[in-house]
Amino acid sequence: MKKKVLIISSTPRKHGNSEALCDSFLKGAQEAGHEVTKIALRDYKINYCIGCEQCSLHHKPCPQKDDAAASSSRWSMPM
Question: Residue 10's closest CA among 41, 31, 37?
Fold first, then answer.
């Protein structure tokens, strides 16, 4: 059964050991016939939460101007 696989790499080093592990996993999943997406967080500007509670209490979008909201649609994979 073909599955959708999302790999999120959080290492800041482009050619480090963690990246090599992600790439090996990606290759194996592709060879097994799965649809694989890899995201490297170092390619995005994502700020820390400032605790303003706009999202949790007021159900409004995050006021920070970063890549988190714009790129989250790429990260979400329907079940």
Answer: 41
Length of the chain: 79
12: tokens are 């800041």
> The pTM is what?
0.72
**Spatial separation of the C-alpha atoms in residues 65 and 6, rounded to whole Å:** 25
What pLDDT is stored for residue 69 in this prediction? 74
Residue type, 5: V
SS3 content of the chain, % helix, strand, coil (to 5): 35, 15, 50
Q: Give yes or no for a contact between 34 and 2, defined as CB atoms under 8 angstroms apart.
A: yes
With tokens 């101007």, the residue in question is: 65
